[in-house]
Amino acid sequence: MDTPYAIEMVNITKRFPGIIANDNITLQLKRGEIHALLGENGAGKSTLMSVLFGLYQAEEGIIKKDGKEVKINNPNDANDLGIGMVHQHFKLVQCFTVLENIILGVETTKGGMLQMDEARAKVKALSEKYGLQVDPDAKIEDITVGMQQRTEILKMLYRDNEILIFDEPTAVLTPQEIDELMIIMKNLAAEGKSILFITHKLNEIKAVADRVTVLRRGKYIGTVDVATTSKEEMSRMMVGRDVQMVVDKKPSEPGEVILKVENMTVASKMHSNNAVKDVSFEVREGEIVCIAGIDGNGQTELVYGLTGMEPLVDGKITLCGEDITKQSIRDRSKLLSHIPEDRHKHGLILDYPLEYNMILQRYYQPEFTSGAGFLKRKEIREYSERLEKDYDVRSGQGPVTITRAMSGGNQQKAIIAREIDKDHKLLVAVQPTRGLDVGAIEGVHRNLIAERDNGRAVLLISLELEEVMNVPDRILVMYEGEIVGELDPKKTTVEELGLYMAGAKRNVGAEKEGKEEA
Fold this sequence. Notes:
Distance between the termini: 74 Å
CATH class of the largest domain: Alpha Beta
Radius of gyration: 23 Å
Helix content: 25-40%
Strand content: 15-25%
Structural class: alpha/beta
Shape: globular
Number of helices: 18
CATH architecture of the largest domain: 3-Layer(aba) Sandwich
Number of domains: 3
Strand order of the largest sheet: 6-9-10-3-11-12
């Protein structure tokens, strides 16, 4: 007799206003298997997993666990069945600590009092076993996105779930953390746990998955064995066309200095010492400069200082020859565009319609507001429709779609469209391809290079080694809040870059040169 599937989703259909997110999809997960779910942004992957986790109810289809039909009306039902989920957009309470978030909903009490010592010991044991080091007493609002991701994974492991859903788990992790997570996933599968793994990264699928199911625009395309299927074949199944994997660009022709940073120092919210320490660098028109480094080495605070989200402890920022060190965020936004690291926290107002998010920083301009102060709704609608078309932003109801209802990848594409379309001299792009499929990544890279070729300055902050090596013209490496090296991507290697990122090597000449220029 055949062993029943750990999970079987049969003929699942889920509809939202204006769109069929899942159109008659069947997915079968074997026990002890790592099964990848691959598809373009908005293909229906997260929706399908949300149906399995009880966040949504399908209009048609059934779910079986170990061969028996089950009803999953909410996440509590899913947890009772041993199904856990690490969400793409974290489900964490910002003002709670890491430990409080992990135990939320499964607290141990005695005499009406929380028993935290036992929980703390279990979390510590799990974090050590799986290499997920976190500070249990840190508040979520004060930790990096990468640390929040670790908290989500620990939250699932704490509940001893046997069916594990990872929705884009590597989107905010460093290359080293991704390698560690791959090992963790293999160990979990070896222990008999079954894993559903949503990702856009074909290298990760090849590294860790046994089988992959591909969705495209809400429809089931097929399920194939990873070992016998090439990345090119999977990419073709996902987007329906051949995708160019190599970034095509001509040599840069740098012009005048657009951004000049001199001796920038920015305080840390987490520690008493400074997160950015005496950093100096320049970005010229017609070039892409990438800030590379392991997450948590001051890149976030550097961007906060540049964009006005955090004041400088010391230093000076000059943009287009103008001292903007003490300027407001609005004044800076007239000269620079910013694709933020956290699209929900700093990029979008999720309960606004898409068309309003497209004009967030420009609503007061004559193009969108009349002299009497009223919004020009027709012009806003037409502008949003143009950006959606030009940048392939997909949503169920077009400009009036509530942004929260869109897939994470399409939310990201909306921000990219808005920021690139603005009239700016400098584009600060932080993790711009986070959560995007290979087709969309190809488009973003093409847009960044077009920005450069149109004479704009681009400052790229990326944790993706492939992106770091292929897109920029110069690489500046940050380690513990300092610029420790300047590298030419055409002349360096991933191994050498890794040594700088780990602090094992310093380009002293470049460092001294930068300070002398300052």
